[in-house]
Inverse folding.
């Protein structure tokens, strides 16, 4: 693994277009020291390489989902009845992207 230094953090921040103060870089550097120590500790666990990686810590079953049943859609007037703002027979939403 590449050693994390202040120069590496500065380079990564520059590439990601982040602007941070020297104090923030120092805080981030200290956090990476902790993370690196934790990863080294985890890496020393015997037999870890023999286990299958997990993508989620819990087993998730989808047995509770109902079957999808096609039905007639609501009439437009009924669908728009509870909308906060309607314009030209469509639900008007606030602008999301500048």
């Amino acid at each position: 693994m590449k050693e994390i230094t202040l120069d590496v953090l500065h380079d990564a921040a520059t590439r990601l277009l982040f602007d941070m103060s020297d104090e923030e870089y120092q805080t981030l550097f200290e956090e990476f020291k902790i993370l690196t120590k934790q990863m080294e500790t985890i890496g020393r666990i015997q037999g870890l390489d023999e286990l299958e990686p997990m993508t989620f810590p819990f087993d998730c079953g989808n047995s509770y989902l109902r079957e999808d049943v096609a039905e007639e859609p609501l009439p437009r007037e009924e669908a728009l009845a509870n909308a906060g703002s309607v314009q030209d027979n469509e639900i008007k939403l606030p602008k999301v992207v500048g």
Q: What stands out?
A: The mean pLDDT is 89. The first strand starts at residue 86 and ends at 87. Residues 6-44 form one domain.
